[in-house]
Amino acid sequence: MLLPSHGHRRPPLPRRRGSSSRRGAHGLTPSPRRAGCLVVLLLALAFVALAAAVLHRASSTARAGHHHREEGDPRTAAPRVTIFSAPLRPPDGSPARQELAVRSWLALPWDVTVVLLGSHPSAHALAGRLGRRVTVEAAVDSSFTGTPFFHSMVARAQAAGSDICVLVDPEIVLLPETVTLLTDLSRISRDWLLVSTSRNISSFPYNLANNAMLEEIQADKRAADSSDRGLIFAWNNPGSPLLEGVVPSFLYGRGAHNRWLAHEVLSSETRFVFDASSLVLGLYPEDFTAKHGAGSSSSGRLPDGSWEYGVNRHLASVYGSYSHRPPGGHHSFSTLYKVVKHSEDYMLSKVQEPTFSRFFIGKEQNAHEEVGSNPWKKENNCLSDHLRSYSSEVYDVPYSLEMLLQFVADQNRSVVLGVAGASYRDMLMSWVCRLRHLGVNNFVVCALDQETYEFSVLQGLPVFRDPLSPKNVSFDDCHFGTQCFKRVTKVKSRIVLEIIRMGYNVLLSDVDVYWFRNPVQFLYSLGPATFAAQSDEHNETGPINMPRRLNSGFYYARSDSATITTMEMVVKHAAKSNSSEQPSFYDVLCGKEGVNRLGDDRCLEPSTNLTVVFLDRDMFPNGAYKGLWERHDLRSACRSLGCFIIHNNWVNGRKKKLRRQMVSGLWDYDPSSRMCLQSWGVASSFAVVE
């Protein structure tokens, strides 16, 4: 039942002439007595043989009793439908409109279920208000600004156990005809994808009370919108591939991804594609195109995130064939059908171009022209070209180190720093995925080269580029002891010094350090004028602060005068050394040959009174301690010891390091899909490239 939003009743919206609240077995599965008429109609409409075969199989299936809709019990034929959506935080989304939309989904027939994607508290609050049919899936990849990744959303929907998945913008109100159409389409035995454009309305003067269903709205009363956010996707058999290849790491709601997906499914010809844009399946209350690039980030602490649109356009231009279709060119899609409604039946009409095809190229060209370039016409679509379009004199693109620190630092002004180059980018992402799983969001990444910087931007990381990093870093020969290693490690201490001078505490963690628990609060509790570092001692007994046993790949440096002065001494010492930075740490903090040692696990730097704590190896084991990496169940062994982390060192070579970590099950990233491994997903096979 519809109730007016102004406190007085309003007449219900008019029904279509001849419509009925109860449908018989019409649509794609005709009754036997109408089979002859349907054949004639198919011939009249020049359906291709493939479409006729599909309809014949669907009809035969219905007559055999599969998914049969019994008279008087329409729920018998109901497919299991799950609606997936990612609520957006203000200013990108409106909580009130999102709740209205979800209520409309719950009002649909057949008791559909709703899964809200994302970890923001507002999603949990919304689910709590709307009952058990609404759940929250927090295990979806997102950027550090909180923007979900579209490819992770699609993957989560693909892992669903329902018959049909629907992926829709969180503010789109779905109408009952959506489920009516999906029920009829569910009888087709082949894989298919339904695409429909929603209708724009300037206002929606109704409240949904007790999940009352919306009345039908005539199609000619509202205009379809050309925004990328206006599309509705639905598909059957979620376990079957949607397209050939992979979905790139589009940022959700930042343009291009919906049109790209529709185009690539058509081009792949792995599914029938049904264009239902002539029907009114969904409404939304304002023009999405007016939102493009408006406002600041959802955090309120970062400037306008319009560069994210550039990231999506870059991905759309280099993945698949979306951007390679010549403007104004004609392309015939063999698996494309238009859904039309005739009386109470849905018909499939073979067409060459989808209703939304004019937006594949033209819409994106207009967006590029707004920023003074058109990368569709370029042979080399570099990410830097797209990002440069959004640069300004005020802000670095995407963000400067200072801005990132302000955004990610925790309540104690502590940040976690990871440093990586191109040879370790997969290990970097496994490290990042593990931190995300633990809810550790106060990290930043220093990229040693432009390739790693651009890769990190595409993966949604809070990354900055160090312009003074050494050039020509070896891909496979930059492990401990090599000249490359010696040059690269000195970057880390210099960056740490820069950050603590800016007033932030730093936990430097090499990306080959696997985290079981978050150690930041424990390390902070050690107090001021304390420098905590991992011990590299491999002997199980005896002192752990012996000469050259301080590991500079995992340490916590506070932003106080004693630590800053000492780190300045370390950086200066390392700059004059032909070795890596690691010996400089020990010689400065503990003195030559350990003359400043205190007991078995400490040192005292005499000029600053900085206390150096060598961390308990049961809680912070190195790669040689107790042979943990050789254990059959490393995770269980570390749980028994109470480990916070374990370092994957004491092994030479990138390939050996990667293999050891993967074999031990301490790996959290799938490089083939560029997604974090999730409990709901099935990781594709990947291995170390020889």
Automatic annotation (TrEMBL):
| Pfam families for this protein | Nucleotid_trans
Q: Name one GO molecular function term.
A: glycosyltransferase activity
A cellular component term, taken from the record's GO annotations: Golgi apparatus
Nucleotide-diphospho-sugar transferase domain location: 440-660
Which region ranges are annotated with the description Disordered? Answer: 1-29
Basic residues bias spans: 1-25
Gene Ontology BP annotations: cell wall biogenesis
InterPro entries from the xrefs?
Answer: Nucl-diP-sugar_transferase (IPR005069), RAY1-like (IPR044575)
Q: What is this protein called?
A: Nucleotide-diphospho-sugar transferase domain-containing protein
What organism does this protein naturally occur in?
A: Hordeum vulgare subsp. vulgare (Domesticated barley)
Tell me the organism's taxonomic lineage: Eukaryota, Viridiplantae, Streptophyta, Embryophyta, Tracheophyta
